């Protein structure tokens, strides 16, 4: 099975921590040159140091510090980095922190607009920047890290459920349009994964219910057939496979990595 990504350039969103950082490291282990992306510049610099310990001498990594709340700034910052490094990107991993939790009926209009811009519009901006290079290379992988809510909406995540579904349908449409060029577009749907976001969800639920955080965790794990939370590295493994040559004929799918929690096939 060919998992070799030597010579491939990968742009990994939200890669200063959590799932994004785990994805960047796994792609680097397979030989890819990584561009780390996030808001926290010191964390990105530490990420580059961490990558240096698992990379070969011929690999070259860099970073872009940008806030995904502004698509225009994302477009200009990434275009500037592409010109500076003369890079053609073969792999795009879209990964942006999810909207805040809350009931849908209480959501304000600007919450939808902000989430739509930072998720779907920024995904689209990046895809447009990279697609031509992917076509010329006859190799492209776009993987969107979204949520199992695209299969079954999750309680108290109204805005997230709405926006994630929009991203999933954007991805399926892109997959249909780009497949003939050797470019695949797929979605990874993480379940409850040990990240800062999960900790925030647990803390918020604890505050609302009055339960101890440990009790909240135990109740959440009861809903998962494997009776534990996922690890960022386990999500990263699935992303890395979809980015590899071995996954060339897998296109337009939603792949849950959730320990079996999602109630639908």
Walk me through what this model shows.
Strands 3-2-1-4-5-6-7 form a 7-stranded parallel β-sheet, sandwiched between helices. The protein has 2 domains: 210 residues, Rossmann fold (3-Layer(aba) Sandwich); 35 residues, no CATH class. The two termini are 26 Å apart. The model has no long low-confidence stretch (mean pLDDT 96). It is an alpha/beta fold and 265 residues long. Strand 5, helix 5 and strand 6 form a beta-alpha-beta unit. The longest helix is centred in the middle third of the chain and has 29 residues. It has 8 helices and 7 strands; from the N terminus they run E-H-E-H-E-H-E-H-E-H-E-H-H-H-E. Helices cover 47% and strands 14% of the residues. Helix 3 runs parallel beside helix 4 and helix 6 crosses helix 7.
What is the average per-residue confidence, as pLDDT, rounded to a whole number?
96
> How many domain regions?
2
Number of strands: 7
Radius of gyration based on Cα positions: 18 Å
Helix-strand sequence: EHEHEHEHEHEHHHE
CATH fold category name of the largest domain: Rossmann fold
Based on the coordinates given, report the CATH architecture of the largest domain: 3-Layer(aba) Sandwich
The amount of beta strand, in percent, is: 5-15%
């Amino acid at each position: 099975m060919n998992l070799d990504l030597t010579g491939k350039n990968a742009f990994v969103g939200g890669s200063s921590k959590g799932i994004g950082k785990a994805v960047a490291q796994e792609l680097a282990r397979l030989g890819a040159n990584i561009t780390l992306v996030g808001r926290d510049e010191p964390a990105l610099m530490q990420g580059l140091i961490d990558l240096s310990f698992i990379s070969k001498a011929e690999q070259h990594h860099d970073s872009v510090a940008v806030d995904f709340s502004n698509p225009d700034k994302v477009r200009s910052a990434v275009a500037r980095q592409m010109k500076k490094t003369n890079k053609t990107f073969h792999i795009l991993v879209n990964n942006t922190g999810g909207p805040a939790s809350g009931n849908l009926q209480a959501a304000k209009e600007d919450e939808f607009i902000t989430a739509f811009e930072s998720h779907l519009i920024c995904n689209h901006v990046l895809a447009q920047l990279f697609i031509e290079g992917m076509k010329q290379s006859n190799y492209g992988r776009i993987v969107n890290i979204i949520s199992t809510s695209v299969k079954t909406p999750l309680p108290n995540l109204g805005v997230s459920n709405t926006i994630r579904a929009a991203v999933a349908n954007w991805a399926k449409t892109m997959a249909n349009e780009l497949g003939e060029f050797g470019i695949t577009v797929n979605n990874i749907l993480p379940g409850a994964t040990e990240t800062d976001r999960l900790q925030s969800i647990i803390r918020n639920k604890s505050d609302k219910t009055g339960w101890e955080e440990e009790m909240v965790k135990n109740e959440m794990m009861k809903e998962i057939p494997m009776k534990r939370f996922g690890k960022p590295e386990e999500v990263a493994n699935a992303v890395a496979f979809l980015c590899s040559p071995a996954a060339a004929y897998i296109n337009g799918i939603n792949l849950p990595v959730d320990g079996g929690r999602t109630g639908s096939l």
